[in-house]
Structure formats: structure tokens, C-alpha cells
Amino acid sequence: MQVKELGHLVLYVSNLEKSASFYGDVLGWDVVIPARQGVPIAAFSSGRTHHELLLIEVGESAAPLPSGRHVGLYHFGLKIGDTDDDLRDALRRLNDAGVKVNGMSDHTISHSLYIEDPDGNEIELYIDVEGIDWRSDPSLIVAPVKPLRL
């Protein structure tokens, strides 16, 4: 067996309407299955496959994500374009939507913004830096992280 690609991500959410609005309206993912009254799911796709994100509502009384270092998901990355101009546009859109940006990083191979969804899941919004050949020099993948100035 060999993994060919990461197919999709499923997140439990406390409030489906709020999370669906965040992923659809703020991040701009296309809605495949809309949040509907009585059906506690919503699905989204960038067009690459039938769904890349599935949200399942578990309600406001569900246990929150643990704080600090813990086993499990740290963050997930979403490629949002190809240039720093795409990141600048995303930053403006996030600011307009009132989404707090927790950090901005230059990873040599990529440039990233870090945010959280309504339930506190960390998301890395990134672009791959043009002209960086990490395949011929894999050490670039673990290059020291530098502050990103947009």
C-alpha cells in the first residue's frame, strides 16, 4: 500500500452554522453539502475531489479542545495561492472578517499565516515559495523559521 494523497479532513464542531460560515464565507471553500436544519453536517471542496472537509456538529456542550501541548492534531495547512500577493489578499479578507491572525512565518519553502477556526483548530494558510527546490535539497523543509513580513 502507498498513500497517494491526503483525501479529506473531518472535524467535529460545536456550532455547525458558525463553522460552515467560517469555512465557506471567510475561507472561500465551495459548499458541497450545505448546513441544513436537522442534518448535522456540512461538506466543502476546492474542486480537487468530492469533499476535502466535512464538518459534523456535536453541540455546544461537547468537550473543548485541550489547551497546551497534547497528543493529536496540531494544525492543518491549506494552500491558498501561489504568491505573497495571495497571502496579502487573504490577510485583508481575514482582517475584514475579524479573524485574528496568530502568526506569520517564512519557512523558506513556504510563507504562512496562522489562524484558528471557531472551535480553536489551528489552520495554516500558505503559499509555496516559487523557485525553491526542496526535492533536490530536502533540508530546506526543516530550515529555521523566520518572521514573515507582508
What does this structure look like?
The chain has 150 residues and is an alpha+beta fold. The chain has 2 domains: 1-60, 2,3-Dihydroxybiphenyl 1,2-Dioxygenase, domain 1; 75-150, 2,3-Dihydroxybiphenyl 1,2-Dioxygenase, domain 1 (Roll), CATH 3.10.180. Helix content is 16%, strand content 31%. The chain is built from 2 helices and 9 strands; from the N terminus they run E-H-E-E-E-E-H-E-E-E-E. It has helices spanning 16-26, 84-96; strands spanning 9-13, 30-33, 41-45, 53-57, 75-81, 103-106, 110-116, 122-128, 146-147. Strands 5-8-7-6-9 form a 5-stranded mixed sheet. Strands 1-4-3-2 form a 4-stranded mixed sheet, covered by helices on one side. A hairpin with a 3-residue loop joins strand 6 and strand 7 (110-116). The mean pLDDT is 96.
Short note summarizing the structure:
16% of the residues lie in helices and 31% in strands. By secondary structure, it is of the alpha+beta class. The protein has two domains: 1-60, 2,3-Dihydroxybiphenyl 1,2-Dioxygenase, domain 1 (Roll), CATH 3.10.180.10; 75-150, 2,3-Dihydroxybiphenyl 1,2-Dioxygenase, domain 1.
